[in-house]
Amino acid sequence: MAVLVAPSILSADFANLASELKRAEDGGADWIHVDVMDGHFVPNLTIGAPVVRSIRAATGLPLDVHLMITDPDRYLGDFAQAGSNYVTVHAEACLHLQRTLSQIKALGMKAGVALNPSTPEDHLQYVLGDLDLVLIMSVNPGFGGQRFIEAVVPKIARVKSMLADAGRSGVPISVDGGIDAATGKLVHEAGATVLVAGKSIYGSGDVGKAIAKLREGCANKAKTHA
Ligand code: DX5
Ligand code: ZN
Fold it and tell me: pTM for the complete prediction?
């Protein structure tokens, strides 16, 4: 499966979101990753549903909304109305994870589960039939531009085999945090099918070139293993 690239607009210029989205779109992005932070679940504040609504109006790409917030159930309706396609909640933030995933789907969105670097993959075991996306954090969530935590790589392979055992191999495995061409290749080899990247895309001078570089690393893997 060809890897998907999801630029994180956290590293974009928030005063020029429309043109930043266009840069991603013209550069060949597959999804737009939107980082929502509440200052409780993570030590940082970013944006909420009104900004997602504006982003929705400015791009035709699927919106991959990553909720780094406590009690996400309270806001699911807002994010649905704002036009989110995927809504991902953190397993650590949900007391009743299966209920939350059902609610996301009842609102017409795809349901993702995110795991912090120190959270074991077992949290997914009893919701494998309910989720549409797994998001594996390769940094502690809260900020863009952090260093990739290599210890999470074996978790990606384990999640891949859990999904296969449950007959859910088609579920995308996304990896988020410190992804560039080198770490992207590493996580893709372990089973990641979506690469989320902020700094390595928006922090580079050329968004299209950065996206192409991420893809190239993964395409080389396909050649070596052919
Ligand atoms: C971190 C966010 C990430 C972040 C990734 O809390 O969830 O999506 O924007 O940024 P980079 O690619 O710069 O690590
Ligand atoms: Zn994110």
Answer: 0.97
